[in-house]
Amino acid sequence: MIEACVLYGVPFSLYTGKARAYLIKQRIPYRELVSATEQYFNVVLPAVHRWRIPTIEFPDGTFIQDGTIIVEHFDKQPGVESAVPPTPKQKVVSLLFDLIGMEGLLRPAMHYRWNFPDDNDGYLQQSFATLAPPGTEDPSAVAKNGMERMRAAAVAFGVVPETFAVVEELFEELLELLDKHFLQVPYLLGGKPSLGDFGLIAPFYGHLSRDPYPSSMMKKRAPRVFRWTERMNRTESDMGEFPEQKEAFLEGDDIPDTLKAVLKKIGEDLVPESKAAAECINQWLADNNPAAGDPVERGVGFGEFELRGTKVTALAQPWRFFLLARVQTAFNELDDTQRQEVRDLMKDLGLAPLLTLTIDRQIKRHDHLEVWG
Question: How many helices (H) and strands (E) does the chain have?
């Protein structure tokens, strides 16, 4: 029996969305608190060294920081049914969608939040005000500062006026393809959520299904995708539209054609950005040669790539390659026949470079922080 824990997060946080949905679906007892509490500032923050949500506090006073690490921890606990599919192709695809949710959809998530102020800003001001520390006289000032920082982050991720059109074009096409997929099955890989669902829900819940403008767009253009975001935040399977669906991953290690179409679309952006980021990070590593154990920065420069004829400049984030390494490890652990099946699939999807694309140093975790190996 897992004891109840405290999840420090907020509903509008992208990364909290992953951890929360996992706790809900796995029926792990928890209560959620905003990080603007005396306990967080006086106890949690000194222990984990930086303000970042989500963070879990256990009854014994220990902590886990970061949604990916939180899910990874619980997924290994006795009595918890793992969200990682056991079959080769589904396992790799699930881990790939986890990367997509954490890194690959940052541009649309940030664009649809920050570039439609008439629809979104009033809602966001109320939301960001909840981050004000205890005793703050003017929460609106805290909200304003937080919003300005995140608008700047959107620009760093490549969301600038010159890229608005291509970001919207790709995302609207992606919505259409996801909607077709969720007409066939309730979750990415069948009748139960995989790790990929928990990764993908991060941008789709925290930003895209709650912020007024993208939420309205999703309900109009892709109602089945919106329905999936609801389903991902309910303890039961919540798939009454699929009365014959078993609560299990698809049989035969199947990757439906509708999901392949989704992955092909995402690959148009994910592959060139990942290549550009790897080149930038490797150059930074050569120039700076950080010592083993040095903290890993959120970004170490900017990669440039072309997307449908549009130049995109985006922050090169080493964390992307921590997540990608998990995909590659799962692939490398397969036997020869299974590796060939996965390799053929990834080649067909235009994603084969992701099986071998690396940076020149490992990223590890130590004392709640990402560090260079």
Answer: 15, 8
Sign for the CA dihedral angle at 312, 319, 84, 232 comes to: negative
Whether 1 has a pLDDT exceeding 70, the answer reads no
d(C-alpha 246, C-alpha 265), whole Å = 28
**Domain limits, CATH 3.40.30.10, in the chain:** 5-75
DSSP per-residue codes, 104-116: ITHHHHHHHHHS-
Angstrom distance (rounded) from CA 26 to CA 2: 11
Closest CA to 104 of 314, 350, 311: 314
* Overall average pLDDT of the 8-12 stretch: 95
Q: The pTM is what? A: 0.96
**pLDDT tens for each residue of 113-149:** 999 999 999 999 999 999 998 889 899 999 999 999 9
pLDDT digits (tens, 9 = 90+) for 267-306: 999 999 999 999 999 999 999 999 999 999 999 999 999 9
Overall CATH class of domain 5-75: alpha beta
Question: pLDDT per residue over 18-34, tens digit each?
Answer: 999 999 999 999 999 99
- Are the C-beta atoms of residues 273 and 303 closer than 8 Å to each other? yes
The amino acid that residue 358 corresponds to is T
Find where tokens 């439609």 sit. Answer: 116
- Residues 49, 368: Cα–Cα separation, whole Å: 8
Name all contacts of 277-282 with Cβ < 8 Å and 24+ positions apart: 277/303, 277/314, 277/316, 277/317, 277/320, 277/321, 278/321, 278/357, 278/358, 278/359, 279/303, 280/316, 281/316, 281/318, 281/321, 281/359, 281/360, 282/359, 282/360
CA-to-CA distance for 155 and 161, rounded, in angstroms? Answer: 9
Label the pairing between strands 5-8 and 63-65.
Answer: unpaired
